């Protein structure tokens, strides 16, 4: 019987130790969660403003404000990426335009006779009219049922038909056509 009594004394302290270890582990887990919420609250600008008022924010509020702020940051990131991509496209377009202008200057320098010859206003108008006619043909497909539809479609049209390379090809075609249909002579000075 004495052995049974000793076993019970050993078992009780073991259960107490287990319970105490479990309680400590649970308290440590809760402290870590609390520290995490406190850290999260200190990182969020929207939670810091509420904290000034003296009210303690609930964990659900901290989580919701965290979600809202992360969504805001993701939207800002996407907006900035879109702006960066638009700027990259603009830089590419400007570089293409620069290269085209440099080619035009070189071509003019290599053919000094063309610089000296003048083109009459009628030919200039003919070239201008042909370019605009070509643009109007493509623009005619733009929907104009209402202003908002026109606004949306016009940007799509601009991006598709007014790229520097497309404009260059169109102008080259128009110039070749005008040049082949007209005889250029030196105007009387």
From TrEMBL:
GO terms for biological process: positive regulation of transcription by RNA polymerase II. Efficient DNA binding requires dimerization with another bHLH protein. Binds DNA as a heterodimer with MAD1, MAD4, MNT, WBSCR14 and MLXIP. Can also bind DNA as a homodimer. GO terms for cellular component: cytoplasm; nucleoplasm. It comes from the Eukaryota. The lineage of its organism: Eukaryota, Metazoa, Ecdysozoa, Arthropoda, Hexapoda. Residues 17-73 form the BHLH domain. Residues 70-97 form a coiled coil. InterPro entries: bHLH_dom, HLH_DNA-bd_sf, Max-like/E-box_TFs. PROSITE patterns: BHLH (PS50888). GO terms for molecular function: DNA-binding transcription factor activity, RNA polymerase II-specific; DNA-binding transcription factor binding; protein dimerization activity; RNA polymerase II cis-regulatory region sequence-specific DNA binding. Residues 1-32 are annotated as: Disordered. It is found in: Cytoplasm; Nucleus. Residues 14-32 have a biased composition (Basic and acidic residues). This is Max-like protein X. Keywords: Activator, Coiled coil, Cytoplasm, DNA-binding, Nucleus, Phosphoprotein, Repressor, Transcription, Transcription regulation. Pfam families: HLH. Transcription regulator. Forms a sequence-specific DNA-binding protein complex with MAD1, MAD4, MNT, WBSCR14 and MLXIP which recognizes the core sequence 5'-CACGTG-3'. The TCFL4-MAD1, TCFL4-MAD4, TCFL4-WBSCR14 complexes are transcriptional repressors. Plays a role in transcriptional activation of glycolytic target genes. Involved in glucose-responsive gene regulation.
